[in-house]
């Protein structure tokens, strides 16, 4: 599966990218420059799944989520955030497939990616 990593925390983004690649997924981009850069990268290489931070400069994750899903409605967005309540109506209503709390538990990450993969095969 093609996966894009989008988090303004460079160290976390690189760790997530290495882990996801180790699990056999194709990491098509590791974007750390903010929301606008994520939208631009996705336009060049639409991923099947995006691990997306919510709190980023130049468009937050909610705005980015809507933009990505408008380009590719079957893309799966997995929010990764430590500062937003996952029960917030803005979060639950934006179309994301999953939400992971920071610090990211790798077992939860793998489960979320496996769930996305199963959902795509259906």
**CA distance, first residue to last residue:** 14 Å
Q: Which series of helices and strands comes N to C?
A: EHEHEHEHEH
Structural class: alpha/beta
- What is the spatial order of strands in the main beta sheet? 2-1-3-4-5
Strand content: 15-25%
Describe the model:
With 122 residues, the chain is α/β, with parallel strands linked by helices. Helix content is 44%, strand content 21%. It has a five-stranded parallel β-sheet with strand order 2-1-3-4-5, sandwiched between helices. It is globular and about 30 Å long. The model has no long low-confidence stretch (mean pLDDT 91).
Supply database-style keywords.
122 residues; alpha/beta; 5 strands; 21% strand; globular
Summarize the structure.
With 122 residues, this protein is an alpha/beta fold.
Task: Summarize the topology.
Layout: E1 2-6, H1 10-22, E2 26-31, H2 35-44, E3 49-53, H3 61-71, E4 76-81, H4 89-92, E5 98-101, H5 106-121
Parallel strand pairs: 1-2, 1-3, 3-4, 4-5
Helix pairs in contact: 2-3
């Amino acid at each position: 599966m093609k996966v894009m990593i989008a988090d303004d925390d460079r160290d976390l983004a690189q760790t997530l990218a290495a882990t996801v690649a180790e699990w056999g997924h194709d990491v098509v981009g590791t974007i750390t420059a903010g929301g606008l850069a994520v939208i631009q990268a996705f336009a060049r290489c639409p991923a099947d799944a995006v691990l997306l931070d919510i709190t980023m400069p130049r468009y937050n994750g909610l705005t980015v989520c809507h933009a990505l899903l408008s380009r590719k409605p079957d893309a799966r967005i997995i929010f990764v955030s430590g500062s937003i309540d996952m029960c917030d109506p803005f979060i639950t209503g934006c179309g994301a497939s999953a939400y992971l709390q920071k610090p990211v538990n790798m077992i939860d990450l793998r489960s979320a990616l496996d769930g996305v993969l199963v959902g795509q095969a259906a």
